[in-house]
Each structure stands twice: as C-alpha cells, then as structure tokens.
Write a sequence for this structure.
C-alpha cells in the first residue's frame, strides 16, 4: 500500500460504527478532569534578584497568580525592566536552572520555594546555562 | 544478579565506573525506554505547499525515538521535502526557521517536549475525544501538519533551533537534578565535553554515549533493597566489616531511594500538568523491611505510583476501599473492585500501580531526567 493511499484513507471521516453518538466515557472521569482543569486563583510571592550587571528593581516582591506560566513571569519582568523585544534576559530559579517557559508558577513554587518565596534570578548574560 | 559484589572480584569489567555498578534490570529498562520509538505521519499543510510541489508525495512517515526532539528530526524531514516534494526554485525561498508543527486536532507542538511525551500526551487526549478509535491507538501514527510560514511564536515559546532545544534540555536536566538533591552540582560538575556528550547521545540516538555520562548524574537503583540478602554471618569477623559494605557505600548514598524527591510530572488530558515533590520513601513510620537489620535507615514504605495518583488526582484514582475482615467462609477477602476511571502511561506503557516511584525515576525517566506520567481515561 502506498503512502498516499494510507493518507487518503485516514483523511476520510470514520464509518458510523466507529463514532459513538454518546461517548462511552465515564461521566465521573470527565467531571474529575473539569475539576483539575480549574485554574488555581491563589497567588504566590515571587522575589526577583538581579545577577551580574542586570539592573536592580526598586520593588522586587510581587504576588503572581499561581496558575500563570513561567513565560508570564518572564514577560512581566521584561516589562518592569523596560526591556525591548530582542534584549537578552536570562531567568533562573534558585541560582541554579532555567525552568521551561510552559511550567506553571504553582508547580515551580511547590517544588522550589524558599521561605515562602519563589526566587527568580535574572541576568543579561547566560549565567548557569 | 549479585551486582553488589565488589569489583575486585571481577577485574574483567573495566568499563564500569568505579563507584557505580548499574544492575542488569536497570540497564534493561533504560535501554527499552531509550529504544522506544513512535510512528509519525508528517504532512505539509496543503494550502502552504509551494507551486510545482509534487502533491502526490507530500506525506512523510517515520519512526522517531521517544527521547528525541522535533528540532532534531528536522534535517531528515527537510531532506525528504527538498528531494521529493518541493520544486527546486520554491525550496530556495523557504525559510526553515518559519516552519512549525501542529497536530491534526489543532494542538501546537512544542519544540522542547520529548517526542515520546508529545505522542503520549496526544494519545491520552484522544481518550476523552468521542469517536477516536480505541484499540490500536498505540500503533497509530501521530498525524502532524507541517506549516511553512507564520509561526505563532508566542505560543511555541522557544525558537525552533536545535541549539534552543539543547538549552531547554539542559535546563530540564538541571531542574531534575535540583529536585533530586537540592542542588545542581552533579550536572554543573560535569566537564563541558560530557555535558555536550549527553545531547550528542540524544542527537545520534546512541544509548552508550548518552549513558556513559548520564550514569554519573542519574541515581542507580541501590542494591540496598528489601530483596537484598544480608551478608553471611561468617564473613563479618574477617575484616571487621562485611564485604558488601564496600559496594554499598557511594552508590547507595547516590541511590534512587536516597534522593530528596523524584522528578515527576503528571499530564492530564488537555492539561493541566502537575508537578510536586515526590519523596522516594513515605514518612509513614512503617518499615517494610521487618526481617532485614541492614536497612535500618529506612523509616517508611516506598512511595508507589498508586499512592502518588490517589493523593494527587484522587478523583481519578480514588483510594481503594479496604478489604472486609477475613471470616471463616472467606479467609482471604479481596477489596471490592471499583470501576477504573483512568490509567497511567509511562513511556507509552501501562504501568502497574505498585511500581515504586524511585525505581520508575531511575529506570523509566526520559533523557532529560523527568518521569512523565500521562493519565488516560478508561472507557466503560
């Protein structure tokens, strides 16, 4: 069977016997998923600390919604620092590693908080890359 | 499998690092994870195909290693498209940095997720979508659409380059190290050539190259397990300490059951991702090693997958009701069976609930050190 034939076959809609009108998924499971999908409205304290030549922030404690992604923290920091797009900024947790931008503040806080704060270090050059 | 014998009796094993003998089963499961591949079907968005492309061949099929990353597959995909599909003139104006992937269900594919995680995360998503084929989902290719222009950079988060992917990978490796030990000394202590060697091992899909370095930073499943027999009583008097103490020293301190926490992430269909501290031993005061005096350091039971799931996603994995007390008519009662709502997949494999988190972390983690558990929803 050629590759083209396969792709055409899979592009067609499934036959009626394969699509259930009422999905046979357990309602309890779907409800559970909805519960876990709800965003955590609580806030955590993020503390920004400059590293090397990076400018120091006047205020460095911020309450940030826990369900935010780390990417939002990076964007917030860039805005506070007045950084333009393309200006280099490197961010770290606990002077140790750069988290994935899609990790949530909540997850990072649970694993790495120090004295009730999530410490985010920022630098204009790669420091612990 | 007496791997905790000392090396001095086995001078013919020069390749083993001096303080770390990886046992047969650990290596076996690491190799099985490493060799795991997933089928991908890659199709260029038909609306974006350049003029004069060969439309009959715009689809490419491949088996991709679970431990690899999309940016590392790009050279092979590009070669196919350039050689077979695109017209030469059209190929010249295409900019690879504008390329990006989407699943056929519209989910964007992140450049920095391991391929195996992308695949499993998609397969659990299909468990909550009506109409998706149930049996054989594991063998179905993940259908990807390749776009050639206008990448949604704000959602993809990272640039598509292999270098950006490598940096993200190193970040994950260090985060995992920090979770295990509270610092990243093991990774930062590696020479640059070794750090690069980890990534090269993934790039070349070479198990030996990767594990030559990774074994220095990944905890071994310590020999000091309940199954380990104690030293024979007669040997104790010879040199004042049992021979097994030599091997147990350094490797045990770095062992999977001695980490502060196992790097674990739980993925639910269509989100969220749950990460928390997962100690390898539960501080429940119970010692499972009743007859083994050599394991006095353990003051709890090993943290199991079933415990993790029933504490972090209890609505999907409700704690099982206890078995009724034994009676004359039913001397060995079983707990009432409850319908299963969900199931855990690790490296695409349905994982037994009694699996211990420390062992899973040492044997079935991805190349970035993280144990990814994808939760699928059971059908009635």
């Amino acid at each position: 069977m050629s590759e083209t034939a396969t792709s055409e076959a899979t592009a067609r809609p499934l036959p009626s016997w394969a699509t259930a009108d009422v999905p046979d998924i357990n309602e309890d499971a779907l409800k559970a998923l909805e519960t876990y999908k709800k965003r955590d409205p609580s806030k955590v304290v993020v503390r920004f600390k400059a590293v090397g030549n990076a400018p120091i922030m006047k205020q460095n404690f911020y309450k940030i919604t826990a369900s935010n992604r780390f990417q939002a923290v990076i964007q917030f920091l860039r805005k506070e620092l007045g950084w333009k797009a393309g200006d280099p900024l490197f961010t770290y947790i606990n002077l140790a590693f750069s988290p994935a931008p899609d990790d949530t503040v909540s997850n990072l806080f649970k694993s790495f908080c120090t004295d009730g704060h999530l410490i985010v270090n920022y630098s204009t050059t790669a420091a612990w890359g | 499998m007496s791997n905790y014998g000392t090396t001095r009796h086995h001078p013919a094993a020069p390749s083993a690092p001096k303080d770390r003998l990886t046992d047969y089963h650990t290596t076996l499961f690491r190799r099985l994870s490493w060799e795991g591949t997933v089928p991908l079907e890659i199709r260029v968005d038909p609306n974006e195909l350049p003029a004069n492309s060969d439309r009959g061949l715009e689809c490419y099929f491949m088996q991709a290693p679970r431990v690899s990353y999309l940016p590392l597959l790009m050279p092979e995909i590009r070669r196919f498209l350039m050689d077979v599909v695109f017209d030469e003139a059209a190929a010249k104006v295409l900019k690879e940095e504008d390329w990006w992937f989407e699943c056929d269900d519209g989910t964007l594919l992140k450049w920095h997720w391991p391929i195996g995680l992308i695949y499993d995360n998609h397969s659990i998503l299909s468990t909550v979508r009506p109409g998706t084929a149930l049996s054989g989902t594991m063998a179905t290719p993940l259908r990807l659409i390749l776009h050639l222009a206008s990448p949604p950079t704000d959602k993809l988060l990272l640039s598509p380059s292999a270098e950006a992917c490598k940096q993200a990978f190193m970040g994950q490796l260090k985060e995992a190290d920090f979770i295990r030990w509270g610092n990243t000394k093991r990774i930062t202590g590696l020479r640059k050539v070794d750090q690069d060697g980890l990534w090269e091992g993934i790039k070349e899909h070479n198990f030996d190259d990767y594990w030559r370095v990774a074994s220095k930073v990944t905890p071994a499943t310590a020999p000091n397990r309940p199954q380990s027999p104690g030293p024979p009583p007669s040997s104790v008097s010879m040199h004042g300490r049992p021979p097994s103490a030599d091997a147990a020293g350094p490797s045990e301190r770095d062992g999977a059951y001695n980490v502060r926490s196992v790097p674990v992430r739980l993925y639910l269909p269509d989100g969220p991702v749950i990460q928390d501290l997962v100690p390898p031993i539960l501080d429940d005061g119970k010692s499972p090693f009743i007859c083994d005096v050599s394991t006095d350091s353990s003051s709890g039971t090993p943290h199991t997958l079933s415990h993790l799931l029933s504490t972090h996603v209890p609505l999907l994995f409700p704690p099982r009701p206890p078995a009724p007390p034994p009676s004359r008519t039913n001397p060995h009662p079983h707990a009432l069976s409850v319908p299963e709502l969900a199931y855990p997949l690790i490296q695409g494999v349905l994982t037994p609930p009694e699996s211990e988190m420390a062992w899973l972390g040492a044997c079935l983690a991805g190349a970035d050190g993280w144990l990814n558990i994808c939760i699928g929803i059971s059908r009635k």
